[in-house]
């Protein structure tokens, strides 16, 4: 266990500018120095905590606003291990996805995490889509994705009799994983290397500058019950040597509440909900993942299988707004799946699965993409900011960790830990 340097005392004046509690209150709150803090117990935060604890000997505290781990985006996704085809070459998404996939398969094998490399077909259903398939093939090869193969529609139909398409791109490296087991396993390792997970614990803001970081922490219950008029007083102030903001949907709003952090570097958050429908009363029509050509904001309504053979279709893209800070910290989003959205799913799915029967789709679940680019904007890369960007030693902010964030989690962890080590 490393000893951490004493941080220089942060000036009182800077603290005063934190508007949600007063000078008097600040004096009365207990303050504690700690080694490393990770905000957010999603798959990415957990992977980072594990990496810091197991491979770098750090003493880590993970702060999570919910009553347990993985209740955010990490339990509301397709659970697909992506190959790394779609992303611009040399982008963080491309690099982290390919590296993360390799680390993930290896980890799953070593730790008996349920997973399966079932492969995926990306399908062109009309002539205008065929060139897009060629572009994806070229891009995938550039990104270092192994085994890609373009095939004629009839070859694809031989693999998947229910499938209809003009051409398809086979990606044998794609697969599926049980995210819950993955998170549990990584948490177990982190805990056995001294990591503490603190649930029902919300970071409401903080202060940071070149001299260090102070985190303002409150019980989640107090925020839920807060009337919004009085000042919210933190229960404790943590003074970490290293801080990773891995708060997912809440990460941008939270870093805006870090007094002293240059607001110029904090991206505007956008939220894009995706609903899933499940196939009822029918046997699994497909053995592979089936994806259409990607659409604006997402990868298109695709076919995913879980490890129990349950088929799900989704996610669609619905931009939502009016999200306030505390809702994003406490994961208070509307995750309901309106039954009538099925109407929009049938025609999309029937483009490649004409045998889909009327009335066979039932509402499944929904997830929200933590985006940092809006509708009709160029999709943004993952944003991983260290001291080189914002000037605060020991701080890494993660923004826009949408798909392929699950696949990339262990590579992101490696990258974040290396960055913190080289800078601190
Ligand atoms: C619909 C959908 C489908 C997807 N499909 C795939 C896929 O098939 N493959 C793939 O690789 N990726 C996929 N992804 C992306 C993947 O799910 C995410 O990248 C990944 O789960 C992000 O993990 P995370 O730990 O960053 O975030 P989260 O899991 O959201 O964790 C963040 C945590 O921070 C906590 N928190 C927030 N604010 C605070 C605060 N102020 N104080 C304390 N705690 C706080 C939250 O409660 C939450 O638990 C998909 C995403 C979506 C939305
Ligand atoms: C978190 O809060 C919930 C609901 O208030 C409670 O049931 C649970 O016991 C708390 N968990 C911990 C670890 O404090």
TrEMBL record:
<dbReference type="Pfam" id="PF01266">
    <property type="entry name" value="DAO"/>
</dbReference>
<protein>
    <recommendedName>
        <fullName>L-2-hydroxyglutarate dehydrogenase, mitochondrial</fullName>
        <ecNumber>1.1.99.2</ecNumber>
    </recommendedName>
</protein>
<comment type="similarity">
    <text>Belongs to the L2HGDH family.</text>
</comment>
<dbReference type="GO" id="GO:0047545">
    <property type="term" value="F:(S)-2-hydroxyglutarate dehydrogenase activity"/>
</dbReference>
<dbReference type="InterPro" id="IPR006076">
    <property type="entry name" value="FAD-dep_OxRdtase"/>
</dbReference>
<feature type="domain" description="FAD dependent oxidoreductase">
    <location>
        <begin position="35"/>
        <end position="419"/>
    </location>
</feature>
<keyword id="KW-0560">Oxidoreductase</keyword>
<keyword id="KW-0285">Flavoprotein</keyword>
<dbReference type="InterPro" id="IPR036188">
    <property type="entry name" value="FAD/NAD-bd_sf"/>
</dbReference>
<keyword id="KW-0274">FAD</keyword>
